Amino acid sequence: MLSRDPSCPMTLAAILNRWSEELPRALSCWGESSDELTQIFEAVRNDWMTNRTESWMALQVPYAGVVEALGKTRPPIYIASSKVVHPSQCLVLSSVRLGPPV
Fold this sequence. Notes:
Layout: H1 9-17, H2 19-30, H3 34-51, H4 53-58, H5 66-72, H6 85-95
């Protein structure tokens, strides 16, 4: 996967089309575990959110119209998301300016 030219549109399309096969193969080749990498990512993200909240929030850009729609909505607000609860809650609370992220 890494020996291919990633700037080539055909290479990029081929990688994306075969991603479900490429990822496990690459992780196995590198001796990595998807679960372990996920845990590391979540630990780093949670530390960043907790200890450097302002810089983390600066990189989180909501979809167009979301902030306005949330601002016009009265509590209670129910949001369905495939994302982890804590980051989603931080983003929503910050977007409607209900206070600092939790």
